[in-house]
Amino acid sequence: MRLATPLGILATVSAAFAYVGTVDPNEPGHYPVCPLLKITGAFCPGCGGLRSAHAFIHGDLGAAFSANAVATTGYFLFAAVWVIWLVRAWRGQPLRIVLAPAWWWSIGALLLVFTVVRNLPFGSALAP
User: Is it the case that residue 2 has pLDDT exceeding 90?
Assistant: First the structure.
């Protein structure tokens, strides 16, 4: 029973990735357009995330990273945290991830810098 939550999360994430792996986001009309991109023409930090997930599920890490470097890094981070969570659940220990406010500010600053740079001409390599 203690493994139910991490295994349920894995099943849900796997189903989402399977769907995105099957329904290609590179073909128009399958997914809604990012509202920020549609209204302003600017890429948000999540733009390219579905294309990144599609490439990732097909084993094309270069294309995944090119579509959205932050999302691709997040996939690996999620996998690492999930493994730690599963091991701790197996041992009957709770998963507690406590980040100091400085870490949260750093993550926010990183996302802000990523968003700004990918929208500037010299950062076009980070654009989806």
Answer: no
